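Bench notes, bay 3.
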Amino acid sequence: MTGTYERSEREKSFKLFQKGKVDITFVSFLLILLVIGLFMLFSASYYYAANSATYNNNPYHFIVRQLTFAICGVAAMYVFSRIDYHIYRKLAWPIYGISILLLITVLILPPDTKGFHRWIFLGPVNFQPSEIAKFGVIVLFASLISVNYKRMEKFSFGIVLFTLLLGLVCFLVVIETHLSATVLIFCIGVALMIVGGIKLRWVGLAALGGAVMGAAAILSGVVDYGSGRIQNWIDPWQDARGGGYQVIQSLMAIGSGGFLGQGLGNSQQKYLWLPEPQNDFIFAIVCEELGFVGAVIIIALFAMLVWRGFVIAMRAPDKFGSLLSIGIIFQIGLQAALNVLVVTNSIPNTGISLPFFSYGGTSLLMLLAEMGIVMSVSRASSVIKR
């Protein structure tokens, strides 16, 4: 009888959850960014694709693939928004474990054409395990903190355990020579630890984790890869035809955009001057075509999306939902901020993409699915408010 009663209560709770409404403001900002991102991707990529035998000289190569993944991603977003997010608490350890296995697998597989161990290729589908690792860290940390938040002030739990879990992921990612993903995962983990309630005087110990990763970078030879980027950041003109070329072309694109821009589709730098403009440096094309005004509007849209995401987190009916939303939204905000800083040469080039803009189908699919999880939290919040 007890089991029947509990099952009945779960069914009632699920039916009530399904009646909840997602945060329309959050969805609106997200869809606006997605649509603008698709337009800018096509504008930035069509000439490059049309003049590349690798892509069969097809000007629609990138936009067709990205649009396909965007449609699939929106569908996934809707599905995930209808799933009670509490299920991820039960799956936290399996997701983290799968992330570790994938990170180990990609190190065993042969490197890509650039010598990096970042991608797993499964026929026509390829993905970066680091993308899954980001989500794995968010879910596991949210789960552990929500259940054990009273223990977060204890050094053995709040610092040692979480540092070990985070350090393992960061170590595996850094020896892939994937510095940008390492920085993102590390910052996401530390942010959740701080929000979770560790003592602020222990935050300095997080820097120790960074030192450990730095030592790992030295042992793995990543520092040589990174030091060149630092030199090109300080003075890109010292190697204007080599390592500094992309940064210089990016700054030229931004400068030529002026206040109002050259107009949508009128970029000159995308005509094989800025290398692969559809990827990490797409924001430079945004600045050139839409100008300072357009760039500020897009940055403001990202800021409003992050703001609304944090509103959803604060209104979440439980700690797990709140921490889950904070982790996902912090990832989006930090990644967008770092990309803008890289494109404007404010920080060294870390090879970080701009969410919803840069080309990458599986990454876009993953991001939109995560947005669906945030919507699931907002749906539960709307039910509680009733």
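Next record in the batch:
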Amino acid sequence: MTLTVCIPVYNQDVTVLVYALIKQTKLARGFANIVVLDDHSESAFHKINSALSKDVSYIRLQSNIGRSKIRNKFLEYTDADYLLFIDCDSTIIDDTYIPCYQKYLDQHKPSVVVGSSVYQNEQPSRQYKLRWTYGSKVESESYDKRRRNSNTTFKTNNFIISKECFHKVSFNEELSGYGHEDTLFGYELNKNNIDIKQLNNPVLNGKLDTNEEFILKTEEGLFNLLKVWRITGFDTHLLEKVRVLKYYCKYKDSIFLKGLYLLLRRPCRYLLINGWSSIVLFNFYKLGFLIQLNSRKG
């Protein structure tokens, strides 16, 4: 049983993450190796990360290909039985992280297993509060909740997939930009009746976006969400996994909500950017943004 740790990187210093993993893979006695694919980062980051090439496989792509394509590309650089995907801004928080996966794979031989991710316990400064609040309260579900809830939205940070399964279900390269490639990937796994196992083996989301960065990424992700909705053939099964899409389908033709959003969009955005991290307000902003996209399309 062998494993390749796959780290797609773009404009991020990954040396701390990689060296933490190297320490554990050396103790795993040939079980795991590490591949870093750089999605044509800026020269400053390439200079920092290229020093890793003496210890791991480090490849810098000649052009930026995006979040879906780069994950699929890892198949070109591994012959391992399993691939472990970790986001480049993650932090390893357990000295038994790799051994935990090794033991689980040896015993269960799953097609897909999710280790999940968590956010820091300490509340950050106001300018980072929205990302931290949403990540902590909405995205970071406990191990017990993940096991009980089969409708958990799939996240691509810290999961393992067998090479055989990855050849069958890959990331959809129609999606470009930021957001919801993981939603579509999870949908495809479910559509192909691939069992997604859950394991209590998280990493820390080490880098917080500012409130404004997070809102911009969310808006970009909502464009992608409508594309995902189209790619799936408007499959209603997706609505049970993505709540904002479910409410969008219910209220997308509401003149009242469209008008309310247009009236409140700027003050809502102002409050969110300035650290008022209300999940209710943020969800309203997302729903209104989607409804506005629908009206533009019309």
